[in-house]
Amino acid sequence: SPQVSFTLELEFSCSILLDRAEVTLEATSDSTEATPEDNVVQLSIPIRYEPDLFLSSDTNLHRYEVHPLGTFAQGPGPEFTTTVKVQNLGCYPVQNVTLHMALPALGHRRATVLAVTRILADNATCTLRPFPEGTRVVPVPPEDLLRVDR
């Protein structure tokens, strides 16, 4: 028997969010059929909307001096204030968004490079957690702090 394949492309409105798309397909013919009841099929397709998230960050310090080994100044250095912002640029709501950040806190010979002093959260819940037991922490050599990964 002949077969026909086709693709349906549906567009959805931002103002009305649907959970499912209901599609009814019916094949008709001028011929007489013994089983016309199998010419109709109804499809129910779940709809999942693609988020359009934008992550940005800004800091008050873009330069940090790394002294030779053994010449670290006593006490904490200058404070970095880094702002991280997550924006939903799409028209669909996004729920249960979790952002994980790992800070390079150890340098050569496990010297402390960064330490979190305080967390200010706006429209978010932030939790500071240590590395889970057994996690391998790779120290960051001072020269690697100059490299910027893009």
Q: What distance lies between the first and last C-alpha atoms, to the nearest angstrom?
A: 56 Å
Fraction of residues in β-strands: 15-25%
Mean pLDDT, rounded to whole units? 78
Number of strands: 4
Task: Work out the radius of gyration.
Answer: 28 Å
Largest sheet: 2 strands, antiparallel
Tally of individual helices: 0
Q: Poorly predicted ranges (pLDDT <50, ≥5 residues)?
A: none
What best-fitting shape do the alpha-carbon axes yield? elongated
The helix content is under 10%
Structural class based on helices, strands and sheet pairing: mainly beta
Strands ordered across the widest β-sheet: 1-2
Q: What is the H/E order?
A: EEEE
Your description of this structure?
It comes from Sapayoa aenigma. The two termini are 56 Å apart. The strands form 2 sheets. A two-stranded antiparallel sheet has the order 1-2. The relative contact order is 0.15. Helix content is 0%, strand content 19%. The radius of gyration is 28 Å and the shape is elongated. The protein is built from no helices and 4 strands. It has 150 residues and is mostly beta strands.
Per-chain topology:
Layout: E1 20-26, E2 40-46, E3 53-59, E4 82-88
Antiparallel strand pairs: 1-2, 3-4
Labels describing this entry:
150 residues; two-stranded antiparallel sheet; two-stranded antiparallel ribbon; 4 strands; ITA10 protein; integrin binding
